[in-house]
Amino acid sequence: MNRLFCLLFGLLLPLTGLAEITLTDDTGQDITLDEPAQRVITLVPHATELMFEIGAGDRIIATVDYSDYPKAARDIQRIGDYNALNQEAIIDLKPDLLIAFTSGPAMKDVEQLKRMGLTVFHSDPQTFTTIADALRDFGRLTGLDESANDAATTFETAIGELGSRYGDRETLSVFYEVWHDPIYTLNGESFISDIIDLCGGRNVFADLPVISPQISLEAVFEQDPQVIVTGPVGNEAESPWTEWPQLQAVNNNALVTVDPDTMHRPTPSLLIGAGQLCRDLDRLRSEVY
């Protein structure tokens, strides 16, 4: 009897170990895995960081250029970039999951890989809530639900603490410049705009219908923001906005520089950039406004 029980248990064990996973990605597509992913290729840098954040960095067998955080990610094999992917190399690696963006030049390669039978999960978190959701989704996909939930909860708590500290302070109107020539900004649907709100600011272009609109210099003058936030000015001695002292932000020297690496990726590392922006706005409240 004992031998029969052991035999039956041994036959059933592989079946009970299978845990089918079905999730809806950020394009509305349902994907299904027969079991948690073990060989993952991240085709967008934020996915690489989120995988490490939940303790799944060792599951990444290849990634793309600019997947440089955390430091361990720099040693992972590269199989392309935002513009194009090495399909042959990806196929040779036999991944059980690709994590891709939702748009961009490389999407033609992603669609071809789908047609060849590879499983693709599209990820494009644009708010604090969807960043936390992405952490939990990646936990589901890799079977690391507990650590992923811990990472998401830690992120949500830190966001809440920043909001509690700075969100109710005197509101400053803010223009966030993504690119200078031509001028690009972000509307209210972006997590950058959420960060501005979190710090007690108001994104002056929040109501524009496109998430990353090109705007005119005249539009900036019309809004006349109290603060202008830009990326590093590079080799220039000073911000190009100093050419326009008619703007109150320029006249008051309320020009803030941020690090794109800690502001432009939908990952917990944005807490670094968010914290710095909150402190900069608070300094301007006390010194200027």
UniProtKB/TrEMBL annotation:
One of its GO terms (biological process) is cellular response to iron ion. Residues 39-289 form the Fe/B12 periplasmic-binding domain. Transmembrane segments: none annotated. Keywords: Signal. Pfam families: Peripla_BP_2. CDD domains: BtuF. Residues 1-19 form the signal peptide. This is Cobalamin-binding protein. It comes from Saccharospirillum salsuginis.
